[in-house]
Amino acid sequence: MTFVVDSSLALAWCFEDEQTAPIMALLDRVAEAGAVAPQLWPYEVLNGLFMAERRRRLDRVRRRQLAELLRGLPIEIDAETAGQAWNASSAIAEKFRLTSYDAAYLELAQRRGLPLATLDQELRRASAEVGVDLLGAD
Q1: How many CB atoms lie within 10 A of CB 112?
Q2: CB-based contacts of 20: which residues, under 8 Å, 6+ apart?
């Protein structure tokens, strides 16, 4: 695996109006070398797809197709995420005023010593502050 992937990046892969060359290059990188995500990643990505369907950005058939595409990627789901929630992730969330969800991505990147691929600006700011390499921006 080459980096930690968050839901904002994964959802950008799903919508043409959010796709850029660097974002799609990261999809290719995942397909070739894999990535890692915290345990909450499938829930966040699926929720984003359900919200897009409810907002009529896509229909049920397309939502299901995209969910299968994402599920089929070689993305390791980190088994230690939940164990980090009460201490390490909580401390990150508090220090940087992040959601506990976003803190889980940063904690995982720090623990594994991997870059973080995110489009979330607050998460990018916090990651830069602690010296985690960032991917995903143009």
Answers
A1: 16
A2: 138
Per domain, the residue ranges of the chain are: 4-135
Is the pTM higher than 0.90? The answer reads yes
Write out the chain's pLDDT in tens, 138 residues: 589 999 999 999 999 999 999 999 999 999 999 999 999 999 999 999 999 999 999 999 999 999 999 999 999 999 999 999 999 999 999 999 999 999 999 999 999 999 999 999 999 999 999 999 999 875
CA distance 133 to 77: 20
Task: Fold for 4-135, please state it.
Answer: Rossmann fold (3.40.50)
Taking alpha carbons only, the member of 61, 48, 37, 56 closest to residue 12 is 48
